[in-house]
Design goal:
mainly alpha, Recoverin, domain 1, Ca-bind
Length: about 210
């Protein structure tokens, strides 16, 4: 059902975009209009640009990141967004904080069930899910492409990880942050905690 949720969320985000003037909300909706992976994808673009690993961005890098991600935002709106995050006015924003603020708000109950799913997948407990981690948890043998001989087991695992990975830079590894960002997108399209938790329990057999 995630693909359907994704479509519904994208449509809803486009609708809301027409109504809202808040610059941060507008950027959030622009990301969500790309589906559940939208916010995570933007985070990945920024990470690639952060050459010195400072985990910060100045305004020029920020605008370049938005452009690289094909977010057509005029300079004025970009400045408004930047100002919201540049709390101390030093011309630099912390991009972890930026991504957390951009992520649609989630209740603690939702965060907890997402982390349960992540911990179940993260067999080695190192905070990163890889193909190795999936071997005991995710059964590739039911996948139609495995059954008809198109894909190996590893290819099925890789395709599965790609769902959570950024569309532009797939490294076959999924961090807690990427998993959380992905499900924040899914969560945005589901109204009640109860329904979200049932969906997660069913999807991950928790």
């Amino acid at each position: 059902g995630t693909a359907r949720h994704d479509r519904e969320m994208a449509i809803q985000a486009k609708r809301d975009l027409a109504k809202t003037t808040d610059p941060v909300e507008r950027l959030r909706l622009r990301c969500l209009a790309r589906g559940s992976a939208g916010i995570k994808g933007l985070g990945r673009v920024f990470r690639i640009m952060d050459d010195d690993n400072s985990r910060t961005l100045d305004f020029k890098e920020f605008v370049k990141g938005l452009n690289d991600y094909a977010m057509m935002i005029d300079k004025e709106e970009a400045q408004d967004i930047f100002r919201v995050f540049d709390k101390d006015g030093n011309g630099i924003i912390d991009f972890d904080e930026f991504l957390v603020t951009l992520r649609p708000p989630m209740s603690n109950a939702r965060k907890e069930i997402i982390m349960q799913a992540f911990r179940k997948l993260d067999k080695s407990g190192d905070g990163v899910v890889t193909i190795e981690d999936l071997r005991g948890v995710y059964n590739a043998k039911h996948h139609p492409k495995y059954q008809n001989g198109d894909w190996t087991e590893d290819q099925v695992f890789r395709a599965f990880l790609d769902n959570f990975d950024s569309p532009y830079d797939k490294d076959g590894k999924v961090t807690t942050e990427e998993f959380m960002n992905y499900y924040a997108g899914v969560s945005a399209s589901i109204d009640t905690d109860v329904y979200f938790i049932i969906m997660m329990k069913n999807a991950w057999k928790l």
